[in-house]
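Need tokens for this chain, all 181 residues.
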Amino acid sequence: MGASVFKQPNGLLGRYSYVSDGFTHLNMSEEEYIISRFEHSIQDSKDTLKKWMRPYKDIIKDAEEHIAVWDEYIKEAESEEERKNYIEDKQKMEEDLQKFKETMNNPPSKEQNSYNEFFKEILQMIDNLCIYYNTEDWKYIKKDYLPVEYPFTDLVEFTQKIKEINELYNKLKESHKKNES
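Here are the structure tokens for all 181 residues:
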């Protein structure tokens, strides 16, 4: 575990990092803690995209090389049952890779596009929330306004949008299950 969140004697939350061996946040409400984690996740995701994005063909090649390693496991198996299990595992990975390749080469379904649009909107809302919270002495202070482009002004509307996304996500999962059958 990289950090622990704790309830302070004053009823607010704090966060202690075992990575930096120190307190990173103090006197936060639950909402402020959640926003701080969103902000961290957004920045981490942006850094990952900037530093670690690789060409699709390189990743496919890496996956194929990883699957090829299983040939060594098959050769070195100590029993026929272990050998059989390694062969099955390798075949499953090959099948999965083939499905991923097909999925990546096909345009997304209408349902997937809807889900992606909602997801992009939610990410933008979270990004806007994080931009309009300023870090000051480990505490988040909310501005008196939200930007005009922010589509929701209260948590009820925000929660409703998240519910809609969750419904779309569940439909998407169900359609994938049906396609696999």
